[in-house]
Automatic annotation (TrEMBL):
Residues at the catalytic site: K203 (proton donor)
UniProt: NADP(+) binding residues: C9, G10, L11, G12, T13, V14, G15, S16
Annotated binding of NADPH, by residue: K103
Catalysed reactions listed for this entry: L-homoserine + NAD(+) = L-aspartate 4-semialdehyde + NADH + H(+)
Originating organism: Marinomonas posidonica (strain CECT 7376 / NCIMB 14433 / IVIA-Po-181)
Protein name: Homoserine dehydrogenase
Keyword Transport applies: no
Enzyme Commission numbers on file: 1.1.1.3
Record key words, sorted: Amino-acid biosynthesis, Methionine biosynthesis, NADP, Oxidoreductase, Threonine biosynthesis
Pathway note: Amino-acid biosynthesis; L-threonine biosynthesis; L-threonine from L-aspartate: step 3/5; Amino-acid biosynthesis; L-methionine biosynthesis via de novo pathway; L-homoserine from L-aspartate: step 3/3
Family: Belongs to the homoserine dehydrogenase family.
ACT domain residues: 353-428
High-level lineage: Bacteria, Pseudomonadati, Pseudomonadota, Gammaproteobacteria, Oceanospirillales
InterPro entries linked to this entry: ACT-like_dom_sf (IPR045865), ACT_dom (IPR002912), Asp/hSer_DH_NAD-bd (IPR005106), HDH (IPR016204), HDH_cat (IPR001342), HDH_CS (IPR019811), NAD(P)-bd_dom_sf (IPR036291)
Amino acid sequence: MEPVKVGICGLGTVGSGSFNILLKNAEEITRRVGRSIVIEQVGARRDNDTCDTAGINVTRDIFDVVNNPEIDIVLELIGGTGVAKELVMTALENGKHVVTANKALIAEHGNDIFAKAQEKGVIVAFEAAVAGGIPIIKAVREGLSANRIDWLAGIINGTGNFILTEMSEKQRNFDDVLAEAQALGYAEADPTFDVEGIDAAHKLTILASIAFGIPLQFEKTYTEGISRITAEDVAFADELGYAVKHLGIARRTKQGIELRVHPTLIAHKHLLANVNGVMNAIMVQGDAVGPTLTYGAGAGALPTGSSVVADVIDVARTLTADPTNRVPHLAFQADALSDVEVLPVEEIECGFFLNMTIQDRAGVLANITQILSNNGISIESLIQREREGSDLVPLVVMTHDVKERNMNAAIAAIEALPDVAGVVQRIRVENLA
Ligand SMILES: NC(=O)C1=CN([C@@H]2O[C@H](COP(=O)(O)OP(=O)(O)OC[C@H]3O[C@@H](n4cnc5c(N)ncnc54)[C@H](O)[C@@H]3O)[C@@H](O)[C@H]2O)C=CC1
Ligand SMILES: N[C@@H](CC=O)C(=O)O
Ligand code: NA
């Protein structure tokens, strides 16, 4: 049989990983697919030392790739939502299948892209876009398709988890660890996407769509990053028996859907609290299967390339299958997406860890507990520390579950007390039972 011809756009971290896997495992891949997969052309601004492109057609113009009539599958591995969108739309218009690792593109423009793919009868595959090497899209969209998914929660940004782990285990400084994550190829081109939670929000948007059958709604995802987390927060949390992890959470409730990414306290004994470094893990709760957990590298050239190439294999296999029987892009039929409401964060209920600085003076603690109680908030535990030579001392409060709305009111009142210095740090606590 004729080989399947692939064109790679972008030869950076993920492009090089995918390129090298396609060459190294060519024989094994042919055994799996029943025909060979060859790299017909590479579009790259510059060469990559880790890739031997001898004998391969290399162009500096990535649009040569999507306009090359020989190519069956285009790999979009340049990133961003500008040129990348134009590239993907052109490839689809030209009748080519597309494999991408670009979560920003899918989360923000996926609705348009999938509509175009459907019109043209081609596939857009994006396993690498969520949690790097973990086959979570396939797991949710296919492996768990018998279930009504109740919720999912996971560590879905490798850079952020790498930073939190190094800060907690080695007391390293935030900027240092971020620079290392960039050098290792984990971080986004703009690393604020990693540290401000935008990248995790892109991924959660995609996961929620395939779990619940809702359109992609990135703009409705509540997004908070790890940049405000201090070494002191991590140490206090640890003392109380918790790890600080950056989680993406999507949950169905009677009122609507929770879609949120933020730092979270998780009990040390919980599996997610023990996912460290660049590793990602996602819990999915289905009504039939119960809780499931997948774990693996969330970023890096070869782990991400693993997902890209698996998608190429999937597409190559379906080239001989009936197009109407393929798995729908968002797991549910395009005309069967539901418009259930995404809840505002004020409606979400969880426990809180509050870390504040107060004057070491009689009555301050009583004022704070009174405010909490006035807002219907009960305290689970509390740490108050003396600080030698200073009458400003740290106070940490853990609360039982309460609506974010009540907590907002309580924090505003606490911050207005003359004996409370600066802002109250809040980290949400999840039991994930
Ligand atoms: N680095 C990682 O571990 C992961 C990255 N991703 C996603 O994969 C995509 C690529 O990311 P990386 O490989 O990390 O980025 P990168 O910056 O290492 O690679 C991108 C490459 O594309 C090239 N490029 C960009 N625009 C171009 C243009 N107009 N013409 C020719 N070449 C162009 C750049 O020169 C660069 O070599 C992004 O969407 C990213 O979000 C997804 C999962 C993991
Ligand atoms: N920057 C991302 C790369 C993978 O998606 C991350 O760190 O997780
Ligand atoms: Na994946």
